Amino acid sequence: MLKIKLQPTGKRHQRFYRIVVAEERSKLSGKVIDTLGTYNPHDPENVIVLNKENYQLWLTKGAQPTDTIRKLVK
Q1: How many angstroms separate the CA atoms of 73 and 71, rounded?
Q2: CB-based contact 37:50 (threshold 8 Å)
Q3: Per-residue model confidence as pLDDT tens digits over 30-42
Q4: Average pLDDT of each block of 10 consecutive residues along the chain (74 residues)?
Q5: Domain 2-73: which topology?
Q6: Which residues, 6 or more positions from 8, have their beta carbon under 8 angstroms from its beta carbon?
Q7: What's the pTM?
């Protein structure tokens, strides 16, 4: 099953996340099918950069967003 989830990058206490489509059981830093955007929780405005067309396309293909992604996109 495909999942839309956060992939952590950056330093230990300065995490930066990529929003990716990957297999449900793959490692967090494992193989990625598509990158949809980015999320920086340390930004004061908590801006999410997301390609909404690709996000909707993957939802129609059956990819399930994680709870965290669902809250962020809302």
Answers
A1: 6
A2: yes
A3: 889 999 999 999 9
A4: 93 92 86 93 88 94 94 89
A5: S16 Ribosomal Protein; Chain: A; (3.30.1320)
A6: 15, 16, 17, 28, 29
A7: 0.87
